[in-house]
Amino acid sequence: MTRTGPVDAARWYVAATVAVAVLGTGWCVAYLTVGAGSEAIAYVFVPVGGALATASIRRLARGGAGRRFWRAVLLAMGAITIGYAWLAVDMITHAAEARTRSTPVPAAACVALGFLIAIWGLARVPVAATGGVERWRMVLDRTIAFLGCAAALWYVGPAPMLSAREPWSRQAILLVGLGFVVAVGAATKVSYIAGGPVDRVAMRLIAAGGGVPAGVVAVLAVQFGYIASVPAQAIVMPLAPVLLTLGVAAQGRADRGLRRDTGGAGVLLPYLAMVAVDVPLVAVAFGAPLRWPVRVALIAAVVVTALVTVRQYLAYRENARLLENTRVQEERLQYEVSHDGLTGLPNRALFRDRLAAALATAGPVSVLLVDLDDFKTVNDLLGHGVGDRLLVSVAGLLRAEAGDAGLPVRVGGDEFAVLLAGDGAGPEDLAGRLLAALSRPISEHRLLVQASIGIADAGPDATVDSVLLDADVAMHTAKQGGKARFMRYADGMREPVLAYMQLGGELRRALENDEFRVVYQPIMRLGDNRLVGVEALIRWHHPARGVVGPAEFIPAAERTGLIVPVGRFVLRETCRQAAAWLAEFGPDALKEAGLNVSARQLHDPDFVAEVASALADCGLPCERLVLEVTESAVLRGRQVSRALYELDRMGVRLALDDFGTGESSLSLLRAFPAAVIKLDKSFVDGIEIDDGRPAAADARKAVARAVIQLAHALGLDTVAEGVESAEQVAVLRDLGYTVGQGFHLAEPMTADGVSRLLARQQSGALHL
Ligand code: C2E
Ligand code: CA
Ligand code: CA
After folding, report:
1. Can you tell me which atom of ligand 1 is nearest the CA of 630?
2. 626 Cα: distance to centroid of ligand 3 (angstroms)
3. What's the CA-to-centroid distance between 537 and ligand 1, angstroms?
4. Handedness of CA 44, 48, 49, 53 (dihedral sign)
5. Structurally, what CATH architecture does the domain formed by 502-763 represent?
6. Domain 6-257 adopts which CATH fold?
């Protein structure tokens, strides 16, 4: 045997009550046409249908959101069914006098009790919570609606029953009246229970169940008198159980979420009620035999209420329009505060909200943090307009790749994110696709941008902040790993990145506290070890960590832009020191002083002017200053090129640092006014090893030879970097190098150390 589901059961009851109503109709037709059987049979159909309806309510009374209400309906329906069963038994046992018998008092009492319970149940259905004026408005509306409907129904029902030629029993009038009260109570409540436990469709069907039979019975009775009781009992009243079982089915569907209650303010009801009141008034004014002054007064009353109703309705329409405007404006405002104006993507605030909501669910949540690489350069070189359009293109790309699976957002600046919630495509897949899409030129400028992507998955007790921090850490790890890649957050990633991120703040403090020092590494003539120049190298005297080398903080200084003030300090310090040495030891003591300049400094529009003023302030001739730049810094566009040419025109010498490690060192020499080439340490390392095999050492030697030949051809000076042994010196000299820099020749030292060296050199020269 299969168990019937709640939906099937509800349908079954509807079908059963319909069957009862059809049987009743069939019998009634037979009785009225052929006069089959006894009139008493007419009273059987209502209690049978009522019993079925009562049974159908049981399930809702046991469980479900509106069970308090349905329990009252169950009781009410039970009492009404018992009352009608009593009546049926009474009629059948007194079949002969069926036509003249009035409803036995106990039966009427049961039915009346049932109606009262239904009214009580209806009264207790909670309405949508409102307070203050709104609450009073609702009470007024409902009273208007109730009285209006009741007046109209009174006019069609109990009133004519009371004044009928064949007077009705008090019981019958009472029951019709109570049926109306149930109907009007349910009808006027419907509008105010949206979103509550009791379904509105069910409530409407209950209203119809009370009102339709009561109304039809009243009209039939008034029109046809007692003869109407047969069709009333057999055809009309069995409709009440049908409507009730339909209501039960509707509530069941709503409980299982199969249908959504769309709400509704119920604002039209009072207007309808006012129109309803006018109906009997109009009927009386034109129908009844009245003296004309009374008629005029009645018509005036009708017209006035009708006009007031129209006026009220217009005011309501206007209010509704204003409310709609406000709602639209509110929505726009809401959109504006939660979206990025440039790209139209959701912004950080909305992102955080959505992330919090996603974390509250049990499903998997991942965040991709997408940071464009070197976006600043695009902005600096091509202007903000191009930068903006690039961001819009990236946003479009993000939208396309994320699809329906993820929420793309602009977190700020050149930083984007995608929120992935639920099981869909993996975040790595998406990251891979994004990088691939970015590897093609985008926007009308056919720009190539790359991005570093950090991926974080939300663990069991992740918070919005912890997930974002993880993604940030992963993204920075990707950047440090060489950009244009993605990284998934892993344990142990956090500490180094956080330390790195904190570095920015610490550097600022260090600058204020004068914690930076400059040391100088002598650049020596190979052979006689005479000092020809120095390279300034920065050191950070950290209060806790001791002396920190530039490799540990220059990248952070570049990232934060602090390299500009830090570099300014090195420039000023080096110029001052070089001028002091020249003053103390004479113009031949050292030929020049070099310092390192990073790309970020060359981008600074004030850089050239700053160099000029540093030289002027210290009285250092331009040609004594060497600015060391790397290939990657030189290849940074027009602004940098212009700065380099201006410096060259001023007479400042430019050195290509780490020469040979880049990709286009040779072609660079044509495009760039270099005066010095610094052969990178990697070509000096192991250059002296000669085991007869044409191995790596020979390759290095070949590069070193090519570089010196090139330098000679172009008339450039050379410095061999990272010289660590006498053997290397010998090989370099063989190749034609005359100047070197390295620990073997001299380590970086303080200015005093260089002064001592210069002093010794001067006295040595004197001794010669
Ligand atoms: P660089 O311009 O190539 O500077 C030479 C680096 O090689 C220095 O390291 C120096 O101490 C080291 N060095 C010199 N001779 C030898 C040797 O024989 N063997 C070995 N193994 N190393 C040797 P340092 O001072 O740590 O500087 C590292 C980098 O930091 C520099 O590389 C330069 O790119 C950057 N840097 C240093 N000072 C500044 C500065 O004031 N501004 C900027 N923008 N960058 C700087
Ligand atoms: Ca250098
Ligand atoms: Ca170098």
Report:
1. 34
2. 13
3. 6
4. positive
5. Alpha-Beta Barrel (3.20)
6. Rhopdopsin 7-helix transmembrane proteins (1.20.1070)
